[in-house]
Amino acid sequence: MHAGGQGVWQARMVQALGASVTMCCVLTGETGQVLGHLVGDEGIEVLAVRRSGRGAAYLHDRRGGERIHLAEAQGDPLSRHDLDELYDLTLRAGLGANVIILSGPAGDHVVPADVYRRLAADLRATGRLVIADLSGERLTAALRGRVNVVKVSDEELLADARITENSIEQIVHAMYVLREEGAGTVIISRAERPMLMLSNGTLSEVHVPTMQIADPHGAGDSLTAGVAATLASGGTIEEAVALGAAAGALNVTRHGLGTGRAETVRTLRDLVSIYPMTDFPAITQSLTPDQLAQRVKDR
């Protein structure tokens, strides 16, 4: 039995990189009780709304060395009272933090999307740095509240119909649209291909050594954790993305999601290269999002 979920994997890697981390969550029913103990035993501080009901869980068969999905249950939606309590404790924890990661819940209908807009807006209003690792309606809502960093994968862009094909032109266009919608820096992960970053008006490719894959799951969450840990310690966005890329690269070599030794991550970080994308001078320097959309349409 293992503690899992996006927030758990991110918190685990943030802690592995030497930063203090608090996970705000709802712990529901028997699975919630178990989850709280497992995460707490890892040394992660847990602030939780505890309630009865059905908690989220999944069942995998890993006896053959691969994850074979057998069953999954989403958690019950939050009541208005539980939602108020979760918002309060998250805001309280955020006020004591340098960086906040907004992550997705275990279930599409557990937390209303507008909660992410409100949290992003309120935390930014207090001068906190907010990272959104979201997709779909939750990403759109967080952007309305404005965030410092957005991390999303190219597959999520496709699923959200922000692009219609996985081409560099469409991805770049989507990055500029995300910036216009409320993101300060945009990071796009692309599986085995170089990541893309749009920050301070500069579009860049992020190259990391290709590692042999034991399990690709959780690499994006380790990336986000590396970005958060670096920004929390006062690093630049370039330093943050380099460490995040290294954490994600190491994660795929391991079966434990969100795991890895900080020393190895930092050694890999020295092998990460960030290159400005000079192949798209018109895109990076002069075109508006509307002009970018027309450029993609013309192709």
Automatic annotation (TrEMBL):
<dbReference type="GO" id="GO:0005524">
    <property type="term" value="F:ATP binding"/>
</dbReference>
<feature type="domain" description="Carbohydrate kinase PfkB">
    <location>
        <begin position="2"/>
        <end position="259"/>
    </location>
</feature>
<keyword id="KW-0418">Kinase</keyword>
<dbReference type="GO" id="GO:0016301">
    <property type="term" value="F:kinase activity"/>
</dbReference>
<keyword id="KW-0067">ATP-binding</keyword>
<dbReference type="Pfam" id="PF00294">
    <property type="entry name" value="PfkB"/>
</dbReference>
<keyword id="KW-0808">Transferase</keyword>
<dbReference type="GO" id="GO:0005975">
    <property type="term" value="P:carbohydrate metabolic process"/>
</dbReference>
<comment type="similarity">
    <text>Belongs to the carbohydrate kinase PfkB family.</text>
</comment>
<keyword id="KW-0547">Nucleotide-binding</keyword>
<protein>
    <submittedName>
        <fullName>Phosphofructokinase</fullName>
    </submittedName>
</protein>
<dbReference type="InterPro" id="IPR011611">
    <property type="entry name" value="PfkB_dom"/>
</dbReference>
<dbReference type="InterPro" id="IPR029056">
    <property type="entry name" value="Ribokinase-like"/>
</dbReference>
<dbReference type="GO" id="GO:0016773">
    <property type="term" value="F:phosphotransferase activity, alcohol group as acceptor"/>
</dbReference>
<dbReference type="InterPro" id="IPR017583">
    <property type="entry name" value="Tagatose/fructose_Pkinase"/>
</dbReference>
<dbReference type="InterPro" id="IPR002173">
    <property type="entry name" value="Carboh/pur_kinase_PfkB_CS"/>
</dbReference>
